[in-house]
Design brief:
Length: about 300
Amino acid sequence: MFDTLSGKFSDIFDRLRRRGALSESDVNDALREIRLALLDADVALPVVKDFVAKVKEQAVGAEVLRSVSPGQMVVKIVNDALIEALGGAPSPLNLFAPAPIPFLMVGLQGSGKTTTSAKIALRLKTRERKKVLLASLDTQRPAAQLQLEQLAQKAEVVSLPIIPGQTPLQIAQRAMETARREVYDVVILDTAGRLSIDLALMEEVKAIRAAVNPVETLLVVDAMTGQDAVTTATAFNEAVQITGIVMTRLDGDARGGAALSMRSVTGAPVKLAGMGEKLDALDEFNPERIAGRILG
Ligand code: GDP
């Protein structure tokens, strides 16, 4: 992930650093290249425009150009702007609510939603010592509830017993009742996905959200889908006001631009990063570390 972007940035910065003095047009040339590199990495156009404008505003000032090492200063400005675009500081899951705390997992089919639900359950169990209940509300795909049950077993987390014939809303309500009765800290509700955004999906998710009032509504998006990930995030955010994003397949070789666009486009922070198929392959999304990786 980010390899191409990182390679391009390192070329641009090498050239900047090699020059002792920088003119305004040197900086403008570099900015043009940065713009192209970001667009090529699938960063959404408005985000690229905003990014370049911010860097320009700071980098073209006389103070920077007359400084001892202007190239370094420009690199620092780009680094800070990248961190800001990626969301600034890491954003942990919100566990500050009375138990049982409902988390609603939303996203398209195949985004990694079910795997991520189990990963989060495992993470909360091992790192936060939380008692977690997993429940699949996916009555669309016949094997979905079984899949979550199997993943829960692997993670050694309890999953809500499957009762055939219940609607997603009924399952959500039963999960919350069970959690109250059996004193769970967190309930992770894995909703059904569709291959693409459709009205029925959004209406279902909206109804569940209204019924359980989740503390976190986490959108799971596949980083490999590039610009489509941004479209998906916009649609879900409009329908159910997401509180955070989990980007999956950041271990893959996608160009990575979606990770850079998410915060600006939705206003919601990317909280976690899926780094593989295994249940412990879930990392905190750390903007500073990612900016470091992009800039090398
Ligand atoms: P869902 O349809 O959204 O519930 O998607 P699943 O959880 O079934 O995941 C679909 C596939 O993606 C599975 O084979 C997962 O193992 C895989 N997957 C999920 N997250 C990641 C990730 O972060 N990295 C990689 N490489 N694979 C992932």
